[in-house]
Amino acid sequence: MRLRPLARTLAAILSAASLFGCAAAPGVASSTSNAKLVQGPPISDIVTPFDKALICLNGRIARQLVFSVGAVLDQTGKESFTDGGVGKFVSQGAGDMIQSALFRAGATVVNRRDPRVATTEAEWRVRDLSRQIPSNFYITGSINSLDFIPGSGAEVEVAGIGARYRQNRILIGLDLAMTDANSGLIVANVPLQKQIFSSEAGIGVGRFIGDQLTNVDFGGREREAIHFALRQMLNLATFELLTQVMKAENFAECRSFVDRAHGYIDHTKTAEAVAALEKAKSAARAVGAQPPGAKPAPAAGPTPAALPGVQMGVKAAAPATTPAAVRTEKPYAGSSGAFPGAGGGKAETELSDQAKAQAILTQ
């Protein structure tokens, strides 16, 4: 019984020491002093698992093709402003994320996210809007579903010792489309969804020490970062939109960088085109033919010394290495625009602007 007053005295001393310790803690200071700020992890650039696939497209998209991003709206209708709510559940900057993805893919991008500077300068007559570069393609869409899936869990306690585990999920979905600015025709479309995972685990111990009940509880929670997961979805969707209007042999290598552990798209025409290309390659190898998309081997011939009119020691003219994107000779010859409506009602021998843009993509 004599130990009880001593325990109370020790508890009072520890409580006082805790209060004095809090006064020196980061973020706490006197009214006349600045609080010391806590230094967290360093700033870094944002890298997603789909960046390699986007970077692989750099150089495969003609530079004279111009892309822009229109409205990509949050249409989930989910928000919370009361009882400590955080406002909108979904980022309002999805369009800027897509613009970054296009830039990473090496596409030529014009800014249509905020026209206020251009329109203000036009009103001041210091800018001629007719000199602005027009878009060939623009991307629009919405984040249109955010469903909270009921979770489940379990908790077991035996003789004052117990463990618990719970998990919950959020299902988020979006739809993006790429439109030909010349005709308004949608040339690519992709719907995507992802489950955001969260879990909680812990262990608790309860024991009587003398006649005092003591409880000790340890636990932790983890959840995917919603906005980072959304950025990954938008990066994958941007890659899919760009490749839907390209030939399979031009993007099949890049698609191999999409790790299925992070995301996959199996029910679009790009997946079908890549599967058909691999099947054609396998068939060609089986008969010893050249696989589709492979560069032909140089033909064997006589040595330069044996060619008439070739002098030894004189370098031959280097072959033209100008990229297709900047050649001046008929870059659209032989193209028909491989999507419906490419002719636009014109004669079959006359290529529409839409077909020209398609031809540059597929070269």
Automatic annotation (TrEMBL):
Q: Which residues form the signal peptide?
A: 1-23
**Does this entry carry the keyword Signal?**
yes
What Pfam families does the entry give? CsgG
* Database matches in Gene3D superfamilies: ABC-type transport auxiliary lipoprotein component
Annotated region Disordered: the residues are: 286-306, 318-363
Q: Which UniProt keywords apply?
A: Signal
Q: What Gene Ontology terms describe where this protein resides (cellular component)?
A: outer membrane-bounded periplasmic space
In Swiss-Prot or TrEMBL terms, this protein is called: Curli production assembly/transport component CsgG
Q: Which organism is it from?
A: Aureimonas jatrophae
Starting at the broadest rank, the lineage of the source organism is:
Bacteria, Pseudomonadati, Pseudomonadota, Alphaproteobacteria, Hyphomicrobiales
